[in-house]
Specification:
heterodimer, A: 259 residues, alpha/beta, nine-stranded mixed β-sheet, two-stranded antiparallel sheet, 13 strands, globular, B: 321 residues, seven-stranded parallel β-sheet, 16 strands, 30% helix
Protein backbone atom coordinates (compact mmCIF):
# COMPACT_ATOMS: atom_id res chain seq x y z
CA UNK A 1 0.00 0.00 0.00
CA UNK A 2 1.28 3.44 -0.93
CA UNK A 3 0.72 5.48 2.23
CA UNK A 4 1.40 9.23 2.22
CA UNK A 5 1.42 11.05 5.55
CA UNK A 6 0.96 14.82 5.33
CA UNK A 7 3.06 16.51 7.98
CA UNK A 8 3.31 20.17 8.95
CA UNK A 9 6.08 21.83 10.87
CA UNK A 10 4.63 24.24 13.44
CA UNK A 11 6.03 26.55 16.13
CA UNK A 12 6.59 24.65 19.38
CA UNK A 13 3.41 24.87 21.46
CA UNK A 14 5.39 24.73 24.70
CA UNK A 15 6.57 28.32 24.21
CA UNK A 16 4.74 31.59 23.62
CA UNK A 17 3.84 32.00 19.95
CA UNK A 18 3.21 35.17 18.00
CA UNK A 19 2.17 36.61 14.65
CA UNK A 20 4.40 38.63 12.32
CA UNK A 21 3.63 42.36 12.59
CA UNK A 22 2.53 43.71 9.21
CA UNK A 23 1.00 40.64 7.61
CA UNK A 24 -0.46 38.66 10.52
CA UNK A 25 1.07 35.34 9.48
CA UNK A 26 2.34 32.89 12.09
CA UNK A 27 5.86 33.77 13.22
CA UNK A 28 7.78 30.68 12.10
CA UNK A 29 11.26 32.16 11.93
CA UNK A 30 11.23 33.25 15.57
CA UNK A 31 10.20 29.91 17.06
CA UNK A 32 11.56 26.39 17.20
CA UNK A 33 9.83 24.28 14.57
CA UNK A 34 8.48 20.89 15.60
CA UNK A 35 6.32 18.24 13.94
CA UNK A 36 2.70 19.21 14.50
CA UNK A 37 1.80 17.15 17.57
CA UNK A 38 -1.30 15.65 15.92
CA UNK A 39 0.67 14.63 12.82
CA UNK A 40 2.82 12.33 14.96
CA UNK A 41 -0.25 10.12 15.35
CA UNK A 42 -0.75 10.12 11.58
CA UNK A 43 2.88 9.07 11.07
CA UNK A 44 2.53 6.31 13.66
CA UNK A 45 -0.69 5.07 12.05
CA UNK A 46 1.02 5.02 8.65
CA UNK A 47 3.86 2.93 10.04
CA UNK A 48 1.42 0.52 11.69
CA UNK A 49 -0.59 0.11 8.49
CA UNK A 50 2.64 -0.57 6.58
CA UNK A 51 3.60 -3.19 9.16
CA UNK A 52 0.19 -4.85 8.72
CA UNK A 53 -0.28 -4.51 4.97
CA UNK A 54 3.16 -3.89 3.49
CA UNK A 55 4.03 -1.02 1.16
CA UNK A 56 5.74 2.29 1.74
CA UNK A 57 5.24 5.35 3.91
CA UNK A 58 6.06 8.69 2.31
CA UNK A 59 6.12 11.91 4.32
CA UNK A 60 4.70 14.89 2.42
CA UNK A 61 5.33 18.36 3.78
CA UNK A 62 4.97 21.90 2.53
CA UNK A 63 7.07 24.53 4.20
CA UNK A 64 10.27 26.55 4.37
CA UNK A 65 13.84 25.21 4.42
CA UNK A 66 13.79 24.64 8.18
CA UNK A 67 10.90 22.16 7.81
CA UNK A 68 13.59 19.72 6.59
CA UNK A 69 14.48 19.09 10.27
CA UNK A 70 10.97 17.81 10.95
CA UNK A 71 11.03 15.73 7.76
CA UNK A 72 14.22 14.08 9.00
CA UNK A 73 12.60 13.36 12.36
CA UNK A 74 9.59 11.75 10.66
CA UNK A 75 11.97 9.61 8.62
CA UNK A 76 13.81 8.61 11.78
CA UNK A 77 10.50 7.31 13.21
CA UNK A 78 10.50 4.87 10.31
CA UNK A 79 8.99 6.44 7.18
CA UNK A 80 10.66 5.34 3.95
CA UNK A 81 11.04 8.59 2.04
CA UNK A 82 9.81 12.16 1.88
CA UNK A 83 8.58 14.82 -0.48
CA UNK A 84 9.11 18.44 0.53
CA UNK A 85 7.17 21.08 -1.40
CA UNK A 86 9.23 24.22 -1.01
CA UNK A 87 8.70 27.50 -2.78
CA UNK A 88 8.95 31.09 -1.55
CA UNK A 89 5.65 31.83 -3.28
CA UNK A 90 3.86 29.47 -0.86
CA UNK A 91 4.62 31.59 2.22
CA UNK A 92 1.44 32.86 3.89
CA UNK A 93 -0.89 30.46 2.06
CA UNK A 94 -4.28 30.02 3.71
CA UNK A 95 -6.05 26.67 4.13
CA UNK A 96 -7.65 26.80 0.67
CA UNK A 97 -4.31 27.44 -1.09
CA UNK A 98 -2.45 24.92 1.08
CA UNK A 99 -5.01 22.26 0.19
CA UNK A 100 -4.46 23.02 -3.50
CA UNK A 101 -0.69 22.57 -3.28
CA UNK A 102 -1.04 19.41 -1.17
CA UNK A 103 -3.64 17.87 -3.51
CA UNK A 104 -1.50 18.59 -6.58
CA UNK A 105 1.60 17.15 -4.89
CA UNK A 106 -0.41 14.02 -3.99
CA UNK A 107 -1.44 13.61 -7.62
CA UNK A 108 2.24 13.62 -8.50
CA UNK A 109 3.38 11.18 -5.80
CA UNK A 110 0.36 8.90 -6.19
CA UNK A 111 -1.31 7.34 -3.12
CA UNK A 112 -3.59 4.62 -1.86
CA UNK A 113 -4.09 6.19 1.55
CA UNK A 114 -3.40 9.77 2.65
CA UNK A 115 -3.10 10.35 6.39
CA UNK A 116 -3.40 13.68 8.19
CA UNK A 117 -3.42 14.74 11.83
CA UNK A 118 -6.91 16.16 12.44
CA UNK A 119 -5.64 19.75 12.80
CA UNK A 120 -2.46 21.78 13.17
CA UNK A 121 -1.67 23.33 16.53
CA UNK A 122 -0.84 26.72 14.96
CA UNK A 123 -3.77 27.54 12.67
CA UNK A 124 -6.17 25.03 14.28
CA UNK A 125 -8.66 25.27 11.42
CA UNK A 126 -9.01 21.49 10.86
CA UNK A 127 -10.10 22.32 7.30
CA UNK A 128 -7.30 20.93 5.15
CA UNK A 129 -8.07 17.16 5.19
CA UNK A 130 -11.68 17.75 4.04
CA UNK A 131 -10.50 20.24 1.41
CA UNK A 132 -7.93 17.79 0.05
CA UNK A 133 -10.57 15.01 -0.12
CA UNK A 134 -12.88 17.39 -1.98
CA UNK A 135 -10.15 18.33 -4.47
CA UNK A 136 -9.05 14.75 -5.08
CA UNK A 137 -12.60 13.39 -5.32
CA UNK A 138 -11.86 10.54 -2.92
CA UNK A 139 -13.63 9.43 0.29
CA UNK A 140 -13.19 11.75 3.29
CA UNK A 141 -12.66 9.49 6.32
CA UNK A 142 -11.79 12.10 8.90
CA UNK A 143 -11.47 12.39 12.70
CA UNK A 144 -10.59 8.74 13.11
CA UNK A 145 -9.90 7.09 16.46
CA UNK A 146 -9.43 3.76 14.66
CA UNK A 147 -8.52 2.84 11.09
CA UNK A 148 -8.99 -0.60 9.51
CA UNK A 149 -7.96 -1.41 5.96
CA UNK A 150 -9.54 -4.54 4.56
CA UNK A 151 -9.03 -5.33 0.88
CA UNK A 152 -10.14 -2.29 -1.15
CA UNK A 153 -12.02 -0.69 1.76
CA UNK A 154 -11.11 1.54 4.70
CA UNK A 155 -13.33 1.72 7.76
CA UNK A 156 -12.83 4.25 10.52
CA UNK A 157 -14.33 5.09 13.88
CA UNK A 158 -15.16 8.77 13.46
CA UNK A 159 -15.34 10.76 16.72
CA UNK A 160 -17.00 14.18 16.62
CA UNK A 161 -18.71 16.55 19.07
CA UNK A 162 -21.94 14.72 18.28
CA UNK A 163 -20.78 11.18 18.95
CA UNK A 164 -19.18 8.22 17.28
CA UNK A 165 -19.86 6.87 13.80
CA UNK A 166 -18.52 4.00 11.76
CA UNK A 167 -17.63 5.22 8.27
CA UNK A 168 -16.50 3.19 5.26
CA UNK A 169 -15.08 4.14 1.88
CA UNK A 170 -12.98 2.67 -0.91
CA UNK A 171 -9.29 3.21 -1.49
CA UNK A 172 -7.79 5.55 -2.47
CA UNK A 173 -8.96 7.70 0.44
CA UNK A 174 -8.08 10.61 2.72
CA UNK A 175 -8.01 9.84 6.45
CA UNK A 176 -7.39 12.20 9.37
CA UNK A 177 -6.66 10.83 12.84
CA UNK A 178 -7.10 12.10 16.38
CA UNK A 179 -4.66 11.71 19.27
CA UNK A 180 -6.38 8.72 20.84
CA UNK A 181 -5.63 6.41 17.93
CA UNK A 182 -2.19 5.21 19.00
CA UNK A 183 0.99 6.00 20.92
CA UNK A 184 3.56 7.55 18.55
CA UNK A 185 6.95 5.85 18.75
CA UNK A 186 10.17 7.67 19.53
CA UNK A 187 12.95 7.53 16.95
CA UNK A 188 15.59 4.94 17.86
CA UNK A 189 19.31 5.57 17.42
CA UNK A 190 19.24 3.14 14.52
CA UNK A 191 16.28 5.00 13.05
CA UNK A 192 18.08 8.32 13.34
CA UNK A 193 21.15 6.96 11.56
CA UNK A 194 19.05 5.32 8.83
CA UNK A 195 17.05 8.51 8.25
CA UNK A 196 20.20 10.32 7.10
CA UNK A 197 20.32 8.14 4.00
CA UNK A 198 16.61 8.16 3.14
CA UNK A 199 15.60 10.04 0.00
CA UNK A 200 13.95 13.47 0.29
CA UNK A 201 12.61 14.86 -2.96
CA UNK A 202 12.02 18.60 -3.16
CA UNK A 203 9.32 19.97 -5.42
CA UNK A 204 8.65 23.56 -6.50
CA UNK A 205 5.29 25.00 -7.46
CA UNK A 206 6.28 24.52 -11.11
CA UNK A 207 6.89 20.83 -10.42
CA UNK A 208 3.37 20.37 -9.07
CA UNK A 209 1.85 22.63 -11.77
CA UNK A 210 0.37 25.17 -9.36
CA UNK A 211 0.52 28.79 -10.58
CA UNK A 212 2.18 31.13 -8.06
CA UNK A 213 -0.86 33.42 -8.44
CA UNK A 214 -3.05 30.86 -6.67
CA UNK A 215 -1.08 30.54 -3.46
CA UNK A 216 0.79 32.61 -0.90
CA UNK A 217 -0.12 35.57 1.24
CA UNK A 218 -0.89 38.00 -1.59
CA UNK A 219 -3.42 35.62 -3.11
CA UNK A 220 -5.00 34.34 0.10
CA UNK A 221 -8.79 34.25 0.00
CA UNK A 222 -8.93 35.06 3.70
CA UNK A 223 -6.88 37.80 5.21
CA UNK A 224 -5.77 39.10 8.60
CA UNK A 225 -6.79 42.79 8.82
CA UNK A 226 -5.17 43.44 12.17
CA UNK A 227 -4.25 41.70 15.38
CA UNK A 228 -3.27 42.59 18.91
CA UNK A 229 -1.99 40.70 21.89
CA UNK A 230 -4.87 40.18 24.27
CA UNK A 231 -4.46 42.52 27.20
CA UNK A 232 -3.02 40.52 30.08
CA UNK A 233 -5.66 39.48 32.59
CA UNK A 234 -5.87 41.72 35.63
CA UNK A 235 -3.93 40.23 38.50
CA UNK A 236 -6.40 38.34 40.64
CA UNK A 237 -6.64 37.74 44.36
CA UNK A 238 -4.70 34.69 45.53
CA UNK A 239 -5.27 33.46 49.08
CA UNK A 240 -3.61 30.69 51.04
CA UNK A 241 -5.97 28.13 52.51
CA UNK A 242 -5.94 28.47 56.29
CA UNK A 243 -8.92 26.25 56.90
CA UNK A 244 -11.33 28.64 55.21
CA UNK A 245 -10.18 28.47 51.57
CA UNK A 246 -13.44 26.91 50.43
CA UNK A 247 -15.49 29.55 52.28
CA UNK A 248 -13.47 32.31 50.70
CA UNK A 249 -13.87 30.87 47.20
CA UNK A 250 -17.63 30.56 47.80
CA UNK A 251 -17.76 34.17 48.96
CA UNK A 252 -16.00 35.25 45.75
CA UNK A 253 -18.52 33.28 43.64
CA UNK A 254 -21.41 34.81 45.60
CA UNK A 255 -19.95 38.30 45.12
CA UNK A 256 -19.92 37.70 41.36
CA UNK A 257 -23.49 36.32 41.51
CA UNK A 258 -22.48 32.85 40.36
CA UNK A 259 -24.23 31.36 43.39
CA UNK B 1 -31.10 43.39 3.00
CA UNK B 2 -28.83 40.64 1.83
CA UNK B 3 -29.54 37.06 2.71
CA UNK B 4 -27.18 35.25 5.12
CA UNK B 5 -27.21 31.45 5.15
CA UNK B 6 -27.07 29.78 8.58
CA UNK B 7 -26.36 26.05 8.74
CA UNK B 8 -28.55 24.72 11.58
CA UNK B 9 -27.62 21.90 13.92
CA UNK B 10 -29.72 19.84 16.26
CA UNK B 11 -28.76 17.68 19.19
CA UNK B 12 -29.41 13.94 19.54
CA UNK B 13 -32.95 14.59 20.82
CA UNK B 14 -33.76 16.72 17.76
CA UNK B 15 -33.73 20.08 19.56
CA UNK B 16 -32.15 23.09 17.85
CA UNK B 17 -28.67 23.53 19.32
CA UNK B 18 -27.93 26.72 21.24
CA UNK B 19 -25.09 27.50 18.83
CA UNK B 20 -27.63 27.72 15.99
CA UNK B 21 -29.43 30.48 17.90
CA UNK B 22 -26.08 32.22 18.34
CA UNK B 23 -25.48 31.95 14.59
CA UNK B 24 -28.90 33.51 13.93
CA UNK B 25 -28.06 36.36 16.30
CA UNK B 26 -24.74 36.94 14.51
CA UNK B 27 -26.36 36.66 11.06
CA UNK B 28 -28.85 39.42 11.90
CA UNK B 29 -25.95 41.85 12.16
CA UNK B 30 -25.02 41.05 8.57
CA UNK B 31 -28.40 40.70 6.86
CA UNK B 32 -31.50 38.54 6.85
CA UNK B 33 -30.87 35.04 8.18
CA UNK B 34 -32.04 32.04 6.16
CA UNK B 35 -31.64 28.75 7.95
CA UNK B 36 -30.39 25.71 6.03
CA UNK B 37 -31.99 22.64 7.62
CA UNK B 38 -30.52 19.23 6.82
CA UNK B 39 -32.78 16.19 6.92
CA UNK B 40 -36.20 15.85 8.55
CA UNK B 41 -37.67 17.96 11.35
CA UNK B 42 -37.76 21.54 10.00
CA UNK B 43 -41.43 21.92 10.99
CA UNK B 44 -40.69 20.96 14.59
CA UNK B 45 -37.86 23.50 14.76
CA UNK B 46 -39.71 26.31 13.01
CA UNK B 47 -41.05 28.06 16.13
CA UNK B 48 -37.65 28.10 17.82
CA UNK B 49 -35.92 29.41 14.68
CA UNK B 50 -38.58 32.13 14.35
CA UNK B 51 -37.94 33.27 17.94
CA UNK B 52 -34.35 34.05 16.98
CA UNK B 53 -35.12 35.96 13.82
CA UNK B 54 -34.90 33.40 11.02
CA UNK B 55 -36.60 34.89 7.97
CA UNK B 56 -36.62 31.70 5.90
CA UNK B 57 -35.88 28.04 6.46
CA UNK B 58 -34.57 26.04 3.51
CA UNK B 59 -35.57 22.51 4.38
CA UNK B 60 -33.78 19.74 2.50
CA UNK B 61 -35.39 16.59 3.81
CA UNK B 62 -32.94 14.01 2.51
CA UNK B 63 -31.48 10.96 4.25
CA UNK B 64 -28.14 11.55 2.49
CA UNK B 65 -26.96 14.01 5.17
CA UNK B 66 -27.03 11.33 7.85
CA UNK B 67 -25.93 8.58 5.49
CA UNK B 68 -22.66 10.12 4.26
CA UNK B 69 -19.90 12.26 5.81
CA UNK B 70 -20.12 16.07 5.23
CA UNK B 71 -19.97 16.05 1.42
CA UNK B 72 -23.77 16.11 0.90
CA UNK B 73 -24.08 19.11 3.25
CA UNK B 74 -21.37 20.93 1.27
CA UNK B 75 -23.13 20.10 -1.99
CA UNK B 76 -26.46 21.50 -0.76
CA UNK B 77 -24.79 24.65 0.59
CA UNK B 78 -22.96 25.17 -2.73
CA UNK B 79 -26.27 24.85 -4.60
CA UNK B 80 -27.87 27.48 -2.32
CA UNK B 81 -24.84 29.80 -2.54
CA UNK B 82 -25.03 29.67 -6.33
CA UNK B 83 -28.80 30.22 -6.41
CA UNK B 84 -29.19 32.83 -3.66
CA UNK B 85 -25.85 34.70 -3.75
CA UNK B 86 -25.89 35.25 0.03
CA UNK B 87 -23.73 37.87 1.76
CA UNK B 88 -22.16 35.14 3.90
CA UNK B 89 -22.54 31.58 5.12
CA UNK B 90 -22.35 31.06 8.89
CA UNK B 91 -21.77 27.63 10.38
CA UNK B 92 -21.08 26.37 13.90
CA UNK B 93 -17.49 25.59 14.83
CA UNK B 94 -18.35 21.92 15.22
CA UNK B 95 -16.51 19.08 13.45
CA UNK B 96 -19.19 18.29 10.90
CA UNK B 97 -20.02 21.89 10.08
CA UNK B 98 -16.36 22.95 9.72
CA UNK B 99 -15.70 20.09 7.32
CA UNK B 100 -18.78 21.04 5.28
CA UNK B 101 -17.46 24.62 5.26
CA UNK B 102 -14.05 23.38 4.06
CA UNK B 103 -15.57 21.57 1.10
CA UNK B 104 -17.94 24.47 0.37
CA UNK B 105 -14.96 26.84 0.19
CA UNK B 106 -13.28 24.69 -2.48
CA UNK B 107 -16.55 24.19 -4.40
CA UNK B 108 -17.47 27.87 -4.50
CA UNK B 109 -14.00 29.43 -4.66
CA UNK B 110 -14.50 31.17 -1.34
CA UNK B 111 -12.34 32.06 1.63
CA UNK B 112 -13.20 30.53 4.97
CA UNK B 113 -12.55 31.69 8.55
CA UNK B 114 -12.84 29.45 11.60
CA UNK B 115 -13.14 29.94 15.36
CA UNK B 116 -14.77 33.38 15.12
CA UNK B 117 -16.25 34.81 18.33
CA UNK B 118 -18.00 37.70 16.60
CA UNK B 119 -18.78 39.03 13.13
CA UNK B 120 -19.41 42.61 12.08
CA UNK B 121 -20.26 44.32 8.81
CA UNK B 122 -17.67 47.00 8.06
CA UNK B 123 -18.87 48.75 4.92
CA UNK B 124 -18.99 46.05 2.29
CA UNK B 125 -16.74 43.71 4.22
CA UNK B 126 -17.56 41.18 6.88
CA UNK B 127 -14.96 41.10 9.62
CA UNK B 128 -14.55 38.18 12.00
CA UNK B 129 -12.83 38.36 15.37
CA UNK B 130 -10.76 35.29 16.17
CA UNK B 131 -8.83 34.54 19.35
CA UNK B 132 -5.56 32.97 18.18
CA UNK B 133 -3.08 30.79 20.07
CA UNK B 134 -5.70 30.06 22.69
CA UNK B 135 -6.67 33.68 23.11
CA UNK B 136 -3.18 35.13 23.54
CA UNK B 137 -3.73 37.18 20.39
CA UNK B 138 -6.95 38.69 19.03
CA UNK B 139 -7.14 38.73 15.23
CA UNK B 140 -9.56 40.54 12.91
CA UNK B 141 -9.89 38.76 9.59
CA UNK B 142 -11.95 39.02 6.45
CA UNK B 143 -12.61 37.03 3.32
CA UNK B 144 -11.43 38.61 0.08
CA UNK B 145 -12.62 36.08 -2.48
CA UNK B 146 -16.00 34.47 -3.07
CA UNK B 147 -18.71 34.27 -0.41
CA UNK B 148 -17.40 34.65 3.14
CA UNK B 149 -17.78 31.34 4.97
CA UNK B 150 -17.39 31.76 8.71
CA UNK B 151 -17.41 29.13 11.46
CA UNK B 152 -18.35 30.57 14.85
CA UNK B 153 -17.11 29.15 18.12
CA UNK B 154 -20.03 27.93 20.28
CA UNK B 155 -20.55 30.41 23.12
CA UNK B 156 -18.72 33.23 21.31
CA UNK B 157 -21.88 35.20 20.55
CA UNK B 158 -24.71 35.54 23.07
CA UNK B 159 -28.02 34.40 21.56
CA UNK B 160 -30.66 37.15 21.62
CA UNK B 161 -34.28 36.61 20.58
CA UNK B 162 -35.86 38.58 17.73
CA UNK B 163 -38.98 37.74 15.78
CA UNK B 164 -38.76 36.28 12.29
CA UNK B 165 -41.20 34.60 9.93
CA UNK B 166 -39.12 31.42 9.54
CA UNK B 167 -41.15 30.51 6.46
CA UNK B 168 -40.26 27.02 5.32
CA UNK B 169 -39.21 26.53 1.71
CA UNK B 170 -38.71 22.92 0.71
CA UNK B 171 -35.52 22.34 -1.28
CA UNK B 172 -35.28 19.28 -3.53
CA UNK B 173 -31.96 17.61 -2.89
CA UNK B 174 -30.30 14.28 -3.36
CA UNK B 175 -26.55 13.94 -3.14
CA UNK B 176 -24.47 13.18 -6.23
CA UNK B 177 -22.43 9.96 -6.41
CA UNK B 178 -19.25 11.98 -5.72
CA UNK B 179 -20.74 13.08 -2.38
CA UNK B 180 -21.52 9.49 -1.38
CA UNK B 181 -17.98 8.15 -1.10
CA UNK B 182 -17.82 8.00 2.72
CA UNK B 183 -20.75 5.91 3.98
CA UNK B 184 -21.92 6.04 7.60
CA UNK B 185 -22.80 2.48 8.56
CA UNK B 186 -23.38 2.97 12.28
CA UNK B 187 -23.90 5.93 14.56
CA UNK B 188 -23.92 6.31 18.34
CA UNK B 189 -24.73 9.74 19.81
CA UNK B 190 -22.40 11.12 22.47
CA UNK B 191 -23.38 10.24 26.01
CA UNK B 192 -25.09 13.37 27.27
CA UNK B 193 -25.66 12.52 30.90
CA UNK B 194 -27.41 15.08 33.05
CA UNK B 195 -24.82 17.84 32.67
CA UNK B 196 -24.72 20.76 30.23
CA UNK B 197 -22.67 20.41 27.05
CA UNK B 198 -19.03 21.38 27.64
CA UNK B 199 -18.83 23.81 24.71
CA UNK B 200 -22.12 25.49 25.56
CA UNK B 201 -22.04 25.60 29.38
CA UNK B 202 -22.12 28.88 31.35
CA UNK B 203 -19.95 27.31 34.05
CA UNK B 204 -17.21 24.71 33.55
CA UNK B 205 -15.45 22.90 36.40
CA UNK B 206 -12.24 21.19 35.27
CA UNK B 207 -9.99 18.84 37.16
CA UNK B 208 -6.33 18.08 36.63
CA UNK B 209 -3.52 15.84 37.75
CA UNK B 210 -3.99 17.07 41.34
CA UNK B 211 -7.12 14.95 41.68
CA UNK B 212 -4.75 12.00 41.82
CA UNK B 213 -6.93 9.19 40.50
CA UNK B 214 -10.18 8.24 38.81
CA UNK B 215 -11.72 8.06 42.30
CA UNK B 216 -10.26 11.44 43.24
CA UNK B 217 -11.66 13.00 40.08
CA UNK B 218 -15.21 12.37 41.31
CA UNK B 219 -14.94 15.44 43.52
CA UNK B 220 -14.85 17.49 40.27
CA UNK B 221 -18.20 16.02 39.23
CA UNK B 222 -19.66 16.80 42.68
CA UNK B 223 -18.50 20.42 42.48
CA UNK B 224 -19.82 20.72 38.91
CA UNK B 225 -23.21 19.33 39.92
CA UNK B 226 -23.49 21.75 42.82
CA UNK B 227 -23.12 24.60 40.31
CA UNK B 228 -25.10 23.03 37.44
CA UNK B 229 -21.85 23.11 35.49
CA UNK B 230 -20.19 21.04 32.79
CA UNK B 231 -17.16 18.92 33.68
CA UNK B 232 -13.83 19.36 31.92
CA UNK B 233 -10.50 17.60 32.31
CA UNK B 234 -6.87 18.37 31.60
CA UNK B 235 -4.85 16.30 29.17
CA UNK B 236 -3.01 14.61 32.05
CA UNK B 237 -6.30 13.31 33.43
CA UNK B 238 -7.48 12.05 30.04
CA UNK B 239 -4.13 10.46 29.23
CA UNK B 240 -4.20 8.68 32.59
CA UNK B 241 -7.63 7.30 31.72
CA UNK B 242 -9.38 8.95 34.68
CA UNK B 243 -11.95 10.72 32.49
CA UNK B 244 -13.10 10.34 28.85
CA UNK B 245 -11.42 12.20 26.03
CA UNK B 246 -14.50 14.14 24.93
CA UNK B 247 -14.17 16.25 28.09
CA UNK B 248 -10.57 17.31 27.48
CA UNK B 249 -10.04 21.10 27.55
CA UNK B 250 -6.93 22.53 25.93
CA UNK B 251 -4.85 22.79 22.81
CA UNK B 252 -5.79 19.33 21.56
CA UNK B 253 -9.18 19.16 23.20
CA UNK B 254 -12.11 21.54 23.41
CA UNK B 255 -11.81 25.30 23.57
CA UNK B 256 -14.27 26.82 26.00
CA UNK B 257 -15.10 30.36 27.06
CA UNK B 258 -17.74 30.11 29.76
CA UNK B 259 -18.80 32.86 32.18
CA UNK B 260 -17.01 30.99 34.96
CA UNK B 261 -14.18 28.45 34.73
CA UNK B 262 -13.03 26.64 37.85
CA UNK B 263 -9.64 24.96 37.47
CA UNK B 264 -9.08 22.45 40.24
CA UNK B 265 -5.74 20.69 40.64
CA UNK B 266 -4.65 22.02 37.25
CA UNK B 267 -1.21 23.63 37.01
CA UNK B 268 -2.16 25.62 33.92
CA UNK B 269 0.42 24.57 31.34
CA UNK B 270 0.23 26.57 28.13
CA UNK B 271 -1.48 23.56 26.48
CA UNK B 272 -4.37 23.83 28.92
CA UNK B 273 -4.56 27.63 28.97
CA UNK B 274 -5.01 27.57 25.18
CA UNK B 275 -8.40 25.94 25.74
CA UNK B 276 -9.80 28.16 28.48
CA UNK B 277 -8.06 31.49 28.90
CA UNK B 278 -10.84 33.46 27.18
CA UNK B 279 -13.23 32.43 29.98
CA UNK B 280 -14.83 35.51 31.54
CA UNK B 281 -13.98 34.64 35.16
CA UNK B 282 -11.37 32.10 36.24
CA UNK B 283 -11.10 30.57 39.71
CA UNK B 284 -8.25 28.19 40.56
CA UNK B 285 -7.53 25.80 43.41
CA UNK B 286 -4.05 24.30 43.50
CA UNK B 287 -1.61 23.31 46.22
CA UNK B 288 1.38 24.80 44.39
CA UNK B 289 1.50 28.58 44.83
CA UNK B 290 3.83 28.80 41.82
CA UNK B 291 1.37 27.09 39.44
CA UNK B 292 0.95 29.19 36.28
CA UNK B 293 -2.84 28.92 36.50
CA UNK B 294 -2.68 31.57 39.26
CA UNK B 295 -1.22 34.07 36.76
CA UNK B 296 -4.55 34.14 34.90
CA UNK B 297 -6.95 33.45 37.77
CA UNK B 298 -9.33 36.14 39.01
CA UNK B 299 -9.43 34.30 42.31
CA UNK B 300 -7.12 31.60 43.53
CA UNK B 301 -6.88 29.41 46.59
CA UNK B 302 -3.52 27.84 47.40
CA UNK B 303 -4.37 24.66 49.26
CA UNK B 304 -5.27 21.00 49.15
CA UNK B 305 -8.23 20.56 46.83
CA UNK B 306 -9.53 17.67 48.95
CA UNK B 307 -10.14 20.06 51.86
CA UNK B 308 -10.96 23.26 49.93
CA UNK B 309 -13.46 21.79 47.46
CA UNK B 310 -15.75 19.95 49.97
CA UNK B 311 -16.02 23.17 51.98
CA UNK B 312 -16.79 25.08 48.77
CA UNK B 313 -19.51 22.57 47.82
CA UNK B 314 -21.07 22.92 51.32
CA UNK B 315 -21.17 26.68 51.00
CA UNK B 316 -22.64 26.52 47.49
CA UNK B 317 -25.36 24.19 48.75
CA UNK B 318 -26.05 26.54 51.70
CA UNK B 319 -26.50 29.41 49.24
CA UNK B 320 -29.11 27.41 47.41
CA UNK B 321 -30.76 27.09 50.84
Amino acid sequence: MNIVVCMKQVPDTEVERSLVPGDGTVDRAGADGVINYLDEFAIEEGLKLREAHGGEVTILTMGPVKAADSVRKALSMGADKAVHVIDDALAGSDAVASSLAIAEALKLTGFDLVLFGCESTDARTGLVPAMVAERLGVPQLTLAAKVDVSGPEVTIRRVTDDGVATVTGSLPAVVSVNEKINEPRYPTFKGIMAAKKKPVQTLTLADISVPAGQVGLDNAWSWVDDFAARPPRQAGVIVKDEGDGGNKAAAFLAGRKFI
Amino acid sequence: MAEVLVLAERDASGEVKKVTLELLTAARRLGEPSVVWLGPGAEGAQARLAEYGAVKVYSADSADFAGYVTAPAAELLAKLVNEKSPAAVLVAGTNDAKEAAARLAVKTGSGVLTDAVSVTADGGRIVAEQPNFGGAVTVHSSVRTGTPIIALRPGGVTAEPSTGAAGIEAVEFSASDEAKLARVTERAPAEKGGRPDLSEAQIVVSGGRGTGSEEGFKIIERLADSLGAAVGASRAVVDAGWYPHQFQVGQTGKTVSPQLYLAVGISGAIQHRAGMQTSKTIVAVNKDAEAPIFEIADYGVVGDLFTVVPQLIDDINKHKG
